Amino acid sequence: MKLPPVEYEAPTTVADAIDLLAEYQDEASVLAGGQSLIPLLALRLARPAMLIDINGIDELSGVSVTDGRVAIGATTREYVAEESQTVADTVPLLAAALPLIGHEAIRSRGTIGGSLAHADPAAELPAVARALDAEFVVRGPAGERVIPAAQWFEAYLTTSRQPDELLLEVRFPAAKQDTGTSFQEVARRHGDFAIVGLAASLVLSGGVISDARLAFAGVSDVPVRAAAAEDLLVGERPSAELFDEAARRATEDLDPPADLHGSSDYRKTVAAAVARRGLRAAAENAARGSD
Amino acid sequence: MVDITLSVNGAACTGSPEARKTLADFLRDDLNLTGTHIGCEHGVCGACTVIVDGRAVRSCLMLAVQAAGSEVTTIEGLAPDGGLGTLQQAMWDSHSFQCGFCTPGFVMQAAAFLSGHPDADEQQIREALSGNICRCTGYQSIIDGVLLAAQRNRQGATVNADQRSDNGSNRG
Predict the structure, then answer these.
(1) In terms of residue numbers, what domain contains B133?
(2) What percent of the residues of chain A are helix, what percent strand, and what percent coil, each to the nearest 5?
(3) What are B118-161's pLDDT values in tens digits?
């Protein structure tokens, strides 16, 4: 369908955008890449009175590294991050996930901040942000605050951003040495939303796992961290038996939603499979890196 | 209404679309460039793919006002002087298409992809085109056409290089 009538503003500064958000509150939608919002408008699933197009705010785009933190501006396009050597070198898990987002034409327009603010639990970037404990920097009339990923994702398509706040950037920790990462997903075809996806990151110190991070996409209304499996993994040496047990622990409490792509039980089985694959791939990746 | 100026197929264009008008509708309704097809109208089928500032985009997922200042290439701008470009000729020779509805989207997506990946193999081409839907062909003939175009582009590049070194006759 054609989009419904809507007012439109394209501020060029963060301050102007926040003024508009403060005025329109939840009657406004922030338009970044538009690859999720415009379909929602076309399908009448979103009916904002005002679209605030932030693509003209130059300071919101770009990748920078400071003190071991990699800050990615909210309107940085997915293809730009995908082609960024800085991202590949410092946040390899993000680099692994980016090519799996939608299709090439979607990544031409889609933005890092847009995907994370849209917060589709089946999308790749929320799982990456949750696995890496990314931080979300938002600013509103009351000032700036930094929200950890554990508190960012509240429910399906819902974040802790207030209606008058704008997401400015997302900060990822730079990967430590000897980190191995893998993003696994099972989808009907390349580019589709994952039936189940997994972001996995392991740090190997002298052959022993010193840090383990696992987050699932597509198994709940938010990305889900597998804390029990992480606890099991730390202090152990990688092995097939260990990863089997980690996959079991990671999935035992899951109760995934059912839809036409798969039942809840099927998703749970797939979750265990991608957990095993992801751990194996991340461990191999870490071992290669330390050679 | 928002006043915009943009370049479409190399020509400067102006318009005053409503904010809610997509680039796809602007191209078709305001500029009368009806080669860009609209299928699903929510970013799933790929039929409306055009090239904006060198990148393939879905013109139904971009507002016309967002294209202000951009360089847009549509299917009408791909062929030199009414003929067929290398990609189009290769797809013609491979019987890539049947009904033709998805054709402009596939061709624009393939054109954008090949320009950045001249040595693409079959698997890469399949993945690059996986966001475009065709209900007639079963896709194999489309993949064949794009592979043939990539091959001809590479041969053409070699021929041109040979011609330069041999100062030979111009074979196009």
Answers:
(1) 80-163
(2) 40, 25, 35
(3) 999 999 999 999 999 999 999 999 999 999 999 999 998 766 65
